[in-house]
Amino acid sequence: MEKQSLMAHNNLVRAGVMGGNDGILSVAGIIVGVAGAGQSLGAIMLSGFAGTLAGMVSMAMGEFVSVRSSHDAQQKARHSQEEALKADYDKEFNFVKEKYQGDGISEELAQQATEEMMKKDPLETTVRERHGFSLKSEVSAWGAALVSFVTFPTGAALPMAFMALATPNLRIMATFLAVLIALLLTGYMAAVVNGANRTKGAIRNLISGILTMVVTFLIGTLFK
Known about the structure:
Low-confidence stretches: none
Number of strands: 0
Oligomer: single chain
Structural class: mainly alpha
Order of helices and strands: HHHHHHHH
Number of helices: 8
Largest sheet: none
Distance between the termini: 59 Å
Mean pLDDT: 88
Radius of gyration: 24 Å
Strand content: under 5%
Helix content: over 70%
Shape: elongated
């Protein structure tokens, strides 16, 4: 139960980090583009607010659909393995044993390990070895959707705040720099959660932010 709770918690953290990151990046791109077109602060804020509302719904629904699809795949694998164990237990046993041997474990130790694992939880063991995931790693689809729904506008608030509070001649630059710093942090956090290289994750996120804001700004200047 503790392991399951930790996995579910980590998945919700992932949804939160990605929601906040997308909020920062998406809305920054929108308002920098509108600012590049020379629009008033009111128009910039309106576009940012509209983008935030759209992003909240989009992120929440995307997380919900993604997690539900994962659940459906897990349930299909569960039912498949339940039937397989009933139909030919020895075949499933031998599959697990041979897989362990393929990983470099001796036949004797593979036999012992398979016996222990299959005795404890044959369904969990065969699902994990055949399909590569644990039945104990489920996350709430509604929870992931709610976390994304809340963290997206939280992230979006940062570029909008800098755009609104900075002096007119510094709005774009102040927003640009604040967003880059925030993206370094969220890229680092995302890498921590996903177990990826933290430096590469932060730099990759930074580059995506630079490209997004530069492109939207240049497009905006075409409509001055």
